[in-house]
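Final report, section 2: Outcomes. Of the targets proposed, DUF1636 domain-containing protein is the one most frequently requested by collaborating groups, and we therefore present its record in full.
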Amino acid sequence: MTTTITICDTCKRDDWDAGQGASDGERLADLVERAAAGIPGVATRRHSCLMGCKGACNVTLQARGKMAYTLGRFDPEIEAAQGIVDYAAKHAAAETGVVPFREWPQAIKGHFVTRHPPLPE
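The predicted structure is given below as tokens.
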């Protein structure tokens, strides 16, 4: 089953400066999309505003019938993007979407904001 990473492409961290050009969310989205390219079971999409502005940069991980997660407070860096994709691949492989803590990539620890149970069928 495919896990979709939705990346907020309008996120701006507190230190963002309009002179930088791309938003922090756009920068993170570019990095996540590159890291996810060719990874089986992982898809990406962008969305404008996940309403987690105080904790930018934000992403969600979702798959039909599995626990869904919101993660935030990322810096738009390669290590964060790779950690998000690595976790998404483990989420895709897990029957319920729950990945044991010992398997979490270091880059995503401390970044979980919420989790949501799957909708009933």
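The helical segments are 24-36, 78-93.
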